[in-house]
Amino acid sequence: MSDAASVVAAPGLVRSGPDGVTDWDRAFTALTRRKARFVLAAAVFVLVFSLGQPVLSVFTTTLDGIAFGPFTWGWVYAVLQFLVPLVVLHLYMWQARKTDDASRALGNLPGANGR
Amino acid sequence: MTLWITSAFLGLLIVVSLIITMVASRRTGSTTSFYVAGNDVAPWQNGTAIAGDFLSAAALLGIVGATALTGLSGFYLGIGTATTFLLMALLVAEPLRNLGKFTLADMLVSRFERKSLRAIAALNTFAVSGFYMIAQFVGGGLVLKFLIGIDYDYCIIALGVLMTIYVLVGGMVAITWIQVFKMGLLLFGALLMIILTLGHFNYNPATLLSAVTEHYGPAYSAPPHPPGLAGRLDYISFGLGLALGPVGMPHILIRFLTVRNAQSARRSAAIAIWLISLFLLGVAILGLGAAALVGRDQILAANPAGTLATLLLAATLGGPVLVGFIAAVLFATVVAVMAGVSIAAAGTFSHDLWANVLRPSSTERERLIVAKSAAVAVCIFALVTALGARSLNLAYIGVVGLTIAASANLPTMIFTIYWRRFNETGAFVGMWSGLVVSVLLVLTGPTVMGPAALFPLANVGLVSIPVAFLATAVGTLLGRDRPDAEAVYRDIVVRTNLTA
User: Fold this and answer.
1) Which of B87, B201, B414 should one mutate to test binding to chain A, selecting the residue with the greatest count of A CBs within 10 A?
2) Which of A81, A109, B238, B284 is most solvent-facing, going by the fewest CB within 10 Å?
3) What is the ipTM of this complex?
């Protein structure tokens, strides 16, 4: 169970800790950090993967070689430029559905004082 | 014969588009419905419309032509697109839906609502939309002249008048439905051509590629190897600009405001990525098919840039009927894309400048009138510019638009959501520097100055995008936080993350 979801499920949710930070705050911060970490990591990964093609193309001849049949590694990379983003997209959709539940639950609680 | 069939398809398309516009006109009584279709667009419609906004005539004709002429190198022009739209889905779609109301500037100033900042954000939208629209207009006019054979001036006027009617009468509702309708036709046409092409090669892409590489040599399947350091860096810069440019394009981004909530925005982005990916993979087959079935010499003879490869392939595969159908769909594509850009620019004038800077006390009715007047003004501006700009370098105009979008908008968008310390000074410096640096580098680069260029790269994103990010960061570090900065950032984080 995610951090946020476990806090949501716990009884007596909104109570101030000794430092004045509520359980809601902690759960919310954990949720947003996890979302941001995933999103930024995925964005950097696909951008680097995408830019790998022009870098390999102009500085090496790696992509010129035959991979299989008539297809060079250049064609394989071209197809991967579509497949890899699609895989990352569905990982993101899967991850977002999980965090949606947690954030919806957090949004409905009295600790949602930022609104 | 072909001309008559094309005209018949065109007439039919225009009639259907006008019916859609008339039906939609019943739902354009408020600014919300005019700008963002009342936030009532379904994710599948929105995703299809986003894909339609990106798959312009230039993308279709240009990439098929380039693949036909140069093989893999030409196909590489379009392959970063899935990444681009994934970045949009990851970084922008949901926060924009949660923070924005009508325009991109809503999000850009969501942490620091200041008139001066909103005015710069609006200026950037005008710059991006203006350059992009002129490029589309001139390109569309030239393509139509080729396709239908009528004078360039008449093509431009026909495009401008139709676009104005769609925007003025039907607003965002009509433009979305027309874009969906057009995408349906475009996908049908492309699928039909792919099946007919593969039919000549046992329905096997490998057989098609073998046939082409046997005929044109192994270089056809090799990536580009531009000579010299400047040429290499320019190629990488082109890739970076293409990957990040559309992420800051206002006419694509405002589509995320037409859906009900962040989840719908995410789903629309996913649908757009699938459609664009499948379409572009199909484009490779069309490009190879054109090379194999039409021949490079014939494609080059028809147009040195390969622009007519799609039409020549259609003629080979399905005769005048298929040519007429594809030509009419291309016309619809040009008008629909331009209408989208026009409504983004009109919304920026009415919502960002009029309602938020010049006359905050204006009524809803007044704002709607200003929005519609702005739409007409934008259309007239683009029409007049396009009439006088037929000899301008299209690549240069289009690249300026994309580069400004990536340099001027992207750093502020990202830092607004993800950087706690980001402040007003950073946003101010970032938006100005992105705009100024990208325009300056293009003006002093080889596309404008030729061999006497002061800056060696034609594609300036490799420098302008990092400079804009750096300037935004330095501006932030030098600037001072507002006393309530922490609370404002917390509010942004809550609004961005909490699901309603």
Assistant:
1) B87
2) A109
3) 0.90
